[in-house]
Amino acid sequence: MTSDLKVTIQKKAEFSPQQKKLNRLIDKIEQQKISIVRWKNAQAEIQQHTRQKLFPVYAELHTVLFQQMQQLWNMLHSHEFSKAEIQQLDEKIASLDKILKHSKSLSAEQQTQVAKINTFYQQVVAQSNAKKSKKSQNVSLENQQTPQQDEFEIEQDFEQYAAEQQQAREQAKQQRLQQKREQAEQMAAQSLKTVYLKIAAMIHPDREQDETKKAQKTELFQQASHAYEQQDLFYLLKMQLQLEQNKGVTSKELTPEQVKFYQLALDAQSQQLESQISEILESFHLAKTVKAEHVHMSDVYKAIDADCAELKQQLKWEKERLKHMKKVSGVEMLLGHGAL
Prior knowledge:
By secondary structure, this protein is mostly helical. It has helices at residues 2-9, 17-76, 83-100, 108-137, 139-143, 147-203, 211-229, 233-247, 256-282, 297-325, 328-336.
């Protein structure tokens, strides 16, 4: 269908830069339409492959991480550690709890324990924030602080600020991508409706008196309506061009205004198709982002295998850490080497 559209547009040996750009866009969308069909057909198979390869490793990894969290939690409340060591242990336990909070691999009893620890650290954070608020209101106490304390608090505030800014940038990036997708969808829908209404005005069968022509127009109208329901802008554009040329409404070469309209409409649909492909790729939940452009099916399977290999390596390391965490001396060793 798209090749026919391109042939209809290409009538002269020399094309304007706008027409050349339009033809390149047509080629791009033609490949995107082929790709999206291929990805949709393979989506279920790839998701099944992902579940078979990754889910068992994730389940075992989460079990090991839970054992680490429980071991450190029990040890924290049964042995003496320095203030600095307690802080490191709290940070580690809280980070493990954050990972496991939404895990679907844990038993009901384990989930209850995770929720209990999560509640504890939420209370700790709330108490810490309350103390900071009270401290900020006490001007005399602030004036008594040593320069070392000021520097430490400034450093903490800066780290928190940097983390918040990074999170804000990520959120802004996601919002821009979402806005771009929505704008593309709106533009594609608008272009689709515009072309469909033009076709309907030219071939609506109710306006035809001749029964033979009315039957022909009814069939064409049904084809146009089906294409509209399927959001097939290519088919509608081709039909519009053919109808206009049959009626002598337009010359064989597209006018600059037509080229501009088709370029905007097709660019919007190209973005829409790219978003659909990206959504399919995102459904695979790969650790490493795979770009939709020029990606092959084998790339996804390779990415899944690479993720699986990395997870297995991480699982091996976490099991080794767990061995050390079963003894106080092992935890102290991990703390001393910054390998907790």
